[in-house]
Amino acid sequence: MPHTIEETPLEVAGPEPLGRVTAEEGRLLARLDRKRLPQHIAVIMDGNGRWAKKRHLPRIAGHRAGVSSARMVIETCARLNIEALTLYAFSVENWRRPKAEIDFLMQLLREYLRKELPVIHKNKIRLVVIGRQEELPQAVQRDIEEAMHLTAGNKGMNLAVALNYGGRAELVDAVNGILAEKRENGAGSKPVDEETISRHLYTANLPDPDLLIRTSGEMRVSNFLLWQIAYAEIYVTETLWPDFNRASLLEALLDFQRRERRYGGLGEEEASPTARAVGD
Ligand code: FPP
């Protein structure tokens, strides 16, 4: 087991949001400004295979260990009152993997939902799956629908699991959705603008991610949330996904808080000479 988070229950709130913490987590938490957390964290969970290989284990052992990290991130973000978390669990490109590995990943997801759905629901998390669900195995589709239906009215954290997801496929689906809407509304409808596109994405009801985390060191976006990450801060760590623990997540949040977000404008110092004089 890469870490021991599973020993602590999810239902903890109040002044000690993370419940019992290690000394390292406590130090990191003390430096974190809980009023300046990202609204939406998106995660590319990479490195399960390499983690397994290093231990002379089959790749599927890496995926199983990866579920434990996913659970920890879900739990920690929910406790920190993060508004939305999106996890990249299976891409449209992942169908190129051996069938046995694909079957295992689908089983793992079903197992996760079976075990965790009551806890997710109890903690008011709203679960959505983003991606081309209609191409997933029937049993997976059924489990997903049940989970989304059960948690649809929850008002806590939005947990989006990207499954059979591709950023380009999402944009194609959005364009087709817009065309269908235009056919229905007839001539004279408004021109397409950014708001129209955002409204037709799988993530229509979520804020855009302001932090994108990628584990295992690759400097790629891998067809993930291409439209939505336009202004996201990107944090890449060498840590392999199964080794990504609560301290790793807190490190990523602290790094996010050190960044200056300018959205194409000027930083505080250049924008206000007085602020610079006073600040210096
Ligand atoms: C990449 O590792 C990871 C995946 C293909 C996703 C699998 C994710 C999990 C098992 C976490 C489960 C998530 C939920 C929501 C329950 P890789 O196989 O590409 O690793 P490698 O690059 O080292 O080969």
Describe the protein in words.
The chain has ten helices and six strands. It has helices at 23-31, 48-54, 59-79, 99-122, 138-151, 167-185, 194-199, 246-258, 268-271, 273-279, and strands at 40-44, 84-91, 126-130, 158-165, 211-214, 233-236. Strands 3-4-2-1-5-6 form a six-stranded parallel beta sheet, sandwiched between helices. Residues 1-9 and 273-280 have low confidence and may be disordered. The protein binds farnesyl diphosphate. The site of farnesyl diphosphate has 18 residues, from helix 2, helix 3, strand 2 and helix 4.
Question: TL;DR?
Answer:
This protein is α/β, with parallel strands linked by helices and 280 residues long. The protein contains 10 helices and 6 strands, in the order H-E-H-H-E-H-E-H-E-H-H-E-E-H-H-H.
Keywords:
alpha/beta, 280 residues, Undecaprenyl pyrophosphate synthetase, six-stranded parallel beta sheet, binds farnesyl diphosphate
CATH class of the domain at 36-166 and 209-258: Alpha Beta
Order of helices and strands: HEHHEHEHEHHEEHHH
* Main sheet: strands, sense, barrel: 6 strands, parallel
- Overall structural class, as computed from helix and strand content, comes to alpha/beta
CATH architecture of the domain at 36-166 and 209-258: 3-Layer(aba) Sandwich
Mean of pLDDT: 90
**CATH homologous superfamily heading of the domain at 36-166 and 209-258:** Decaprenyl diphosphate synthase-like
N→C terminal distance = 48 Å
Order of strands, widest sheet:
3-4-2-1-5-6
Which of globular, elongated, flat, extended, rod-shaped describes the shape? globular
Q: How many distinct helices? A: 10
The CATH topology name of the domain at 36-166 and 209-258 reads Undecaprenyl pyrophosphate synthetase
**Low-pLDDT ranges:** 1-9, 273-280
- How much helicity do the residues have? 40-55%
